[in-house]
Amino acid sequence: MEVAEHSAQIDADIAVVTFSQPNLLRAFEKQMDLSLRLYADPQRTVYRAFGFERGSRARVWLDPRVLRRYAQLLRRGRRLQRSDQDTLQLGGDVVIDRRGRLAWIHRSEGPEDRPTVDAVATAVRQAA
Fold first, then answer.
1. 4-57, pLDDT tens digit by residue?
2. 16 near 5, Cβ under 8 Å?
3. DSSP one-letter string for 27-61
């Protein structure tokens, strides 16, 4: 949620859509102390509408960036936990203009494939 951490740079309303069940989402929201609007989409209607695909096991779990991220977490003392969520579901980032039209989209090719804050901020400025 790097974009959320830099929301002051981005002059826009930021919302997060996840496929988590609403009860899990509320617990996550509390744990992370998030001030963003969070929406649950357990049927993945929004994911399908934006073309966010599921990745293959190799694409998700054998990606060197993912392995590096887990190694960093382990070195920091974090314990890995089994997920009840669909770890193969890929996401993305979208910018919707004031008229409600899709202005920009980034479809992630893997779990570590995220646009930079600057890329999102630029897309927001261009959509204004």
1. 666 666 777 888 898 888 888 887 777 777 777 889 999 999 999 999 999 888
2. no
3. HHHHHHT--SEEEE-TT-HHHHHHTPPBPPHHHHH
Q: Which of 43, 122, 25, 23 is nearest to 15 (CA)?
A: 25
Q: Record the tokens describing residue 112, joined without a space.
A: 């570590």
The Cα–Cα gap between 16 and 29 comes to 11
Domains of the chain (ranges; CATH) run: 2-127 (3.40.30.10)
Q: Is 59 exposed, middle or buried (0-12, 13-18, 19+ CB in 10 A)?
A: middle
Question: If 0-12 CB within 10 Å is exposed, 13-18 middle and 19+ buried, where does residue 91 land?
Answer: buried
Tell me the per-residue pLDDT of 53-88, one tens digit each, with 9 for 90 and over: 998 888 777 778 777 877 887 888 888 777 778 888
Token duo for residue 40: 């649950």
Angle at 29 between CA 73 and CA 100, to 5 degrees: 110
If you count them, how many residues does the chain have? 128
